[in-house]
Structure formats: C-alpha cells, structure tokens
Queue: 2 jobs
Job 1
Amino acid sequence: MIDTARLEATVGALTDPGKGILAADESVPTITRRLQAVGVESTPETRRAWRGLLFGTPGIGEHLAGVILFEETLDQHADDGTPLVELLARQGIVPGIKVDKGTELLPNACPGEKVTRGLDGLAERLAAYREKGARFTKWRDVYLVGPGMPSPLALSANAEVLARYAALAQQAGFVPIVEPEVLMDGDHGIEQCAEATEAVLHAVYHALHRHRVVLELTLLKPNMVLPGKAHPAKVPPEMVAERTLRVLRRAVPAAVPGIFFLSGGQSAEEADANLAAINRLKGNAPWTLSFSFARALQQPAMEAWRGEASNVAEAQRIFLKRCRLTAAARRGEYTPEMEAAA
Ligand code: 13P
C-alpha cells in the first residue's frame, strides 16, 4: 500500500512555484574530486564543513524547496551540534536522499556503458532513511551518446532498475526522483542528444508502467537537450529550450507533476539561461519545469570558500545569489544582466 497522502504532501512541497531543489548528494568519490579541485582534502570533517556552510546560509529557504543529501550527511551536525538536517528544516526545506550505490560497467553492452546498482537491501535502507526524516529519494542512471549508444541493452537494463527502485521507494513512503542522465561527454551534436534522450525517456516510462509506479507521485530529473561538451558549436538557450521541450512532450506523460533538470557540467550562467528559456517557451506544458542542480548551484561558492573559515561569509553570499538567480530562471525571469546587478 502506498501512503498517498504523505507522498502528495511531498510532491506539493517540492513543486512550490517559486522554488527548486539543491542536489548536495555527491558520493564520496565525487565530492572528493570537487573538493580537491579547490585545494581541499576530502574528509568527513571537510565534507561536513562544506555542507554545513550550504545549509546554514540564511535565506535559501526562499528559493529551495528541497535538498538531496548523501547518506553520510544525514548523521552529521553543525559546529553548534545542530543536526545538518535540522538546519534545513528550520528554513522549511524538505530533505531527500540519494539511494543508488553508483554505477558499474554493463557486461556485453557497448564499451563504457554502465548500469546503476543499489537494489540489494534497498527496502531496509529506505526504512532507516525514513526514520532520519528523509521524504524523497533519488536514483541516477547514466547513458553515453555515440555510435550505437545508448545501446538497447543499456536502455532496458537501466530502465528496469530505475523502475524497481521507484516502486520500492513509493512503498516505503518516499517520492522517487527518477534520474536518467544522458551525459554531455563526447562531441555529438544537439540532435543526437535529442534522439538519445527521447529513447531513454521512452524506455524509462515503459518500465515505470510495467512496475505499476504511480506517476503522479514521482518526479523526473532529466538532462537538458544539449550538444556534447567537445562539440564545437555553441547553441543558444532558445534552441536548447525548443529541443528539450519537444523531447519531453513526446516522452513524458502529463501525469508526472514535475521535471527538475540537472545541470550536468554546464556553467551556472549557462544552466540558468537555459532553464529560463525553457520556462519562457513552455506554453501549455503540463509539468512544473524546475531545477535540481548540484554543480551550477555549488561550484562558484566552493571556489570562493577553498576550505577557509574566513571565506565562509563570501561563499554563502555567492551561494545565496545562485539560489536566487536559479529560482528566477525557474520562473522564466532570469537574464544574464541579473548577474552583474546581483
Ligand atoms: P549536476 O547538476 O552537477 O549535474 O548534478 C545533479 C545531480 O544530482 C547528478 O546526479
């Protein structure tokens, strides 16, 4: 039995018209790469300091409805002993949790193609996360674009685990965020990304249907439709928005309440310009079109912080600015001129 009222309340909170989601759920290897890039050693203590800085930023509750956490963070405390989750609750922010266990190579698929793991023992882990206050969950699949990719095997294997995860999460009282990410790695053009994203989303929604997942109680976290990072052409936001909306209209059922884009390695300014264009061009699209960024919200602040206590105030100022501008983009109001004005 699904606790529909609990899940509906969570969906209602996360789809607040003025707000979006911060992804602060980097696994230990991923956050270690990000911290090392700004000269900070990755330890439980520096990860606690970084996430405490983010969650303790006054004012973010005006722009963020939810934050996705990594398991480790659920048990960590701020300097004054306040649980980090409590810092979020004080600002009215709903905590979520990443529940996948990362990716591994998928045998007999194309070279480099991966499948996500984490189903073993998931029901037990979900029960523990619920005790600690989490109300929604995230599971991420990744897909490469290239000759023959994503392969039919990668499409079906990843969709199947994603749907099994979503069904388990709903049973356990969580709104599942379903994240099939078509990666920006490579030199493919925007049309190849569009084709790959459409195939991925079709496979995912077929699998969710097979597993009887209640779409009204799920959220989608997709990539925007973009050229590969190594592709020479720069694409204007209006074109990104047009291609992204076309793919979503073709493949995402209207029953899904919200679509929360990942930033995927775009700069903060690019991600916000593209999100704003999507919201300006959305017409009668049936879903909330919002954000669930990690890098585009955190990166500029992390570069200002560099692990120094004396930089905390400046890093928080920059983080709050990114939250404010990204929430403006989610309403279609962001323009690049706002960067200087802010
Ligand atoms: P980025 O916004 O940095 O792509 O991260 C989003 C995310 O949560 C990936 O799983």
Note: The mean pLDDT is 97.
Job 2
Amino acid sequence: MRTPFVAGNWKLNKTPDEAETLARCVVDAVSGITGVDVAICPPFPALERVASAVRGTAIGLGAQNMYWASEGAFTGEVSAPMLLTCGCEYVILGHSERRQFFGETDETVNRRLKTALRAGLKPIVCLGESLDERQADRTEQVVEAQMRGALNGLSADDVQGITLAYEPVWAIGTGLTATSEQAEAVHGFLRQVLARLYRDEVAQAVRIQYGGSVKPDNAAALFDQDNIDGGLIGGASLEADAFAAIVKAAV
Ligand code: 13P
C-alpha cells in the first residue's frame, strides 16, 4: 500500500515573511489529517523561516531545485548539503518550468537526481508532455523517454526512494486539468515502464503524483484512481484552506 503524498510547489511566490505566515496557516489547516504525507516547497530565501514554522509537525519541507556539485564556482546555484542545513527533506527536480525556461534536460535532471539521493534528500521528479506532443499522440513516448533519462544508472533501491510527478505541461496553471481517465492512463503506463526497467515490486512501491491545476473540487476524482498517489500542487497550494482540502481528498 502506497501512502498518498501531497506537496505544495510555491514556485516564485512569497517573501520570507509571507512564506512563514502561509506555512503557519498550512500547519493549522492540515493538523489532525493523517494517512497522507504532506510537504511544502517554498523559494530558497524562505526555506529556513518555513523550516521553523513546520518544525515538530508532520509537514515536510522541500526545495524546488538544486545543483549537483556541493560547492564551487557555480554562480546562482544551491547544493544538496545547503538544502539539508536549511531543513529540507525533499527536493523537486526537473519541473517543466525548469526544462522550458532554464534549459534543463533529462541528463541534467539525472545528475541532480543522483546527487540528491546520495545526499539523503527525497526527490520528486517531474515529467510530462506538452500540448503539441499530446495532440501528436506522443504522450507515452515522451514520458517514457523522460523517465528513462532521469533514472539512467539508478538501482532498484534508488528508485524506491523517489516520487514521480506526472505533470502534463498543458495542464499547469491553465485551469485545464487532465481528466481522471487521462491521468490514470499515463500513471498506469509509467508504472508498467518501471516494472519493465526494474521489477513489479519496485513499480508498485514508487509513488506517482499528479500535477496540473489540481483544485479542491477535482482532487478527489483524480486521487481515487488506482495509480495516482496524491498530487504536486501549484496555485492552490498558496491558499492554506484550499491546500488542506486537497490534502484531505488524498486520504
Ligand atoms: P498548478 O497547480 O498551478 O497548475 O501547478 C502545477 C505545478 O506545476 C506543480 O508543480
């Protein structure tokens, strides 16, 4: 049995002050909800403030990216050891916005992923097709290539420490959600590929979140699907009550 996992990706939103306030509201709003893992991922400058707000609660802290070197001449980057000292347990890798605007590729996601696992962070690895790719009927081909690229060289043990997030690019921030059936079809497909690459037991253990315009009113239908193990939430995670409603829907 996989425990559902709901994570909030705050993207480029919230100053440290605002982030701490939101984190405290999330702590209140989700308190008492059990049977689901919860994490919030604020921007880097807010990590320590949010860490103090969630300390002693069941809410985990995550970062939105990291680099593979631990230190050196890499202006603008942050490393896994730095995230750990800020209190991070999770790190989002390969988000489509990183791929689209900041040149990330399957290969750079793979390098980050290996480093994150070695450092003891729990990675959330994002993948998903664009609208053009879906319309050209290439969804399976695209997500399989992204997954193989990201997981290249990883052992079955490594893979069991990862959460995958299927986020169709056309559903992110657009208000267009994949239907439960569309999402479930891709999640089931990803699990089959995992079983082929590793073994069925590994495929059954890996959590696959859905992301892309998840809201309180569509969350339950998505999370009810056999292969959807919670969600990676953008816009709705910036509002504590909406986020808590989504967390509840995952239980
Ligand atoms: P939205 O929930 O705003 O569509 O964003 C989804 C997402 O990109 C989460 O990583």
Note: The mean pLDDT is 97.
